[in-house]
């Protein structure tokens, strides 16, 4: 797999930023990135502004120019969707759920409350329960409280969320039961710029470990330059491997009724090493590098699942005012009593 070097990206980046909002305002355009131009399905070796559209050719309502300021464009027909999953509470739920007595990254989590979902997000309007992934454990910078990291669209879901909303593991999609399987409460969240994140304050009585299922102990956080091999452990696809191929992706994704379409800028784009990198229910997973440092927070992917998108982890941590929890970090499991 060939990667554009940082010099090529630095030349194209201001031009891409200049046109991305105008491109994304056109019907059918859902993403703008920097990558290699393909012609007839073959790589050309030329750097390009990559434009994701819902459909190509005559089905696309407005033509994208062949080049901008001398930089070629490359049109990619794909859908980009948030990778949470939902289920009507009336639908059949699994008899045996993946259930973990010790909380850690890579396991299912979801709100205890059901949310109202209407078409086109679902075929039949009604109350649905949500599932995503608890990606990793984090610790608040001030109080040193232990929390579980996930996405805004997993923990908060819609504009009716409140601090204190209860969370369950396994999720209700996976057969979790309200009250009986509660693991914590929504403590903070951010949906802005390049961040789509939420943190769940874990109940003091639930044991937890600063590790990710099938990956091991987390060692910290780090940036993810292009070419970084990464792994994630998600609720649906479990352990998958990929490579960071861009840190310049801007995507427009639909968060549903009450929130609508939001742009996430400067996202990591990950290409799978084999098969699907992510699927519905994997939102909230974290990406780790070969040293088990967290580098990104997975939130969305293409319909094929071969391409994923993630928030850079440094921006997530700063927005939530938390740090990645490692086995050697001091922690507190409950707030100090008021003076």
From TrEMBL:
InterPro entries associated with the record: Peptidase_S1_PA (IPR009003), Peptidase_S1_PA_chymotrypsin (IPR043504)
Gene3D superfamilies: Trypsin-like serine proteases
Highest taxon above the source species: Bacteria
Protein name: Serine protease
Organism: Lentzea tibetensis
Lineage, uppermost ranks: Bacteria, Bacillati, Actinomycetota, Actinomycetes, Pseudonocardiales
């Amino acid at each position: 797999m060939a990667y554009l070097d940082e010099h090529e990206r630095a030349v194209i980046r201001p031009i891409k930023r200049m046109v991305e909002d105008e491109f994304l305002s056109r019907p059918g355009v859902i993403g703008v990135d920097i990558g290699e131009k393909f012609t007839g399905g073959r790589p050309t070796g030329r750097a390009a502004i990559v434009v994701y559209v819902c459909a190509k050719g005559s089905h696309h309502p407005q033509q994208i120019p062949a080049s901008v300021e001398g930089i070629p464009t490359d049109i990619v027909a794909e859908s980009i969707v948030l990778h949470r999953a939902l289920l009507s509470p009336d639908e059949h739920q699994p008899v045996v759920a993946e259930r973990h007595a010790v909380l850690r990254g890579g396991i299912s989590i979801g709100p205890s409350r059901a949310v109202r979902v209407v078409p086109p997000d679902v075929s039949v309007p009604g109350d649905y329960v949500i599932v995503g992934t608890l990606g990793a454990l984090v610790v608040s910078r001030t109080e040193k409280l232990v929390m579980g990291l996930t996405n805004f669209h997993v923990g908060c879901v819609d504009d009716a969320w409140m601090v204190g909303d209860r969370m369950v593991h396994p999720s209700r999609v996976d057969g979790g039961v309200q009250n009986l399987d509660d693991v914590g409460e929504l403590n903070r969240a951010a949906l802005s710029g390049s961040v789509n994140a939420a943190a769940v304050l874990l109940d003091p009585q639930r044991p937890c470990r600063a590790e990710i299922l099938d990956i091991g102990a987390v060692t910290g956080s780090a940036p993810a330059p292009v070419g970084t091999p990464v792994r994630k452990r998600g609720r649906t696809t479990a352990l998958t491997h990929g490579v960071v191929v861009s840190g310049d992706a801007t995507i427009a994704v639909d968060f549903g009724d009450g929130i609508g379409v939001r742009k996430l800028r400067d996202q990591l784009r990950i290409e799978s090493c084999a098969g699907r990198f992510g699927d519905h229910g994997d939102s909230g997973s974290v990406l780790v590098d070969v040293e088990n440092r967290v580098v990104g927070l997975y939130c969305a992917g293409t319909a094929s699942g071969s391409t994923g998108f993630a928030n850079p982890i440094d921006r997530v941590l700063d927005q939530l005012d938390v740090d990645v929890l490692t086995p050697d970090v001091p922690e507190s499991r409950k707030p100090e009593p008021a003076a």
